[in-house]
């Protein structure tokens, strides 16, 4: 699965994207965030505003966008 990071999320994790192969137990965004955070604590800080219960089964690509403000 390809995981993409944007804006300050990208800055916090230090990369624009990466290919990952999470274990079968990773079924939701929350599971994915927890799995990534166990690999490196910079992920934990980057995922503060993500809806963790979204299902990811069958996803080939996940993108994390931080909350945006209009102007």
Strand count, sense and barrel status of the largest sheet are: 3 strands, mixed
Oligomerization: single chain
The percent range for helix content is 25-40%
Looking at CATH, which topology would you report?
Ubiquitin-like (UB roll)
> First CA to last CA: what distance?
34 Å
Strand content: 15-25%
Secondary-structure-based class equals alpha+beta
Strand order of the largest sheet: 2-1-3
Number of strands: 3
* Total individual domains: 1
Element order: H for helix, E for strand? EHEHHE
Summed up, what is this model?
The chain has helices at 7-13, 29-39, 41-46; strands at residues 2-5, 17-19, 61-64.
Structure description:
This protein has 71 residues and is α+β, with helices and mostly antiparallel strands. It has one domain: Ubiquitin-like (UB roll), CATH 3.10.20. The chain has three helices and three strands, in the order βαβααβ. It has helices at residues 7-13, 29-39, 41-46, and strands spanning 2-5, 17-19, 61-64. It is globular.
Task: Provide the descriptors you would attach to this structure in a database record.
Ubiquitin-like (UB roll); 3 helices; 34% helix; globular
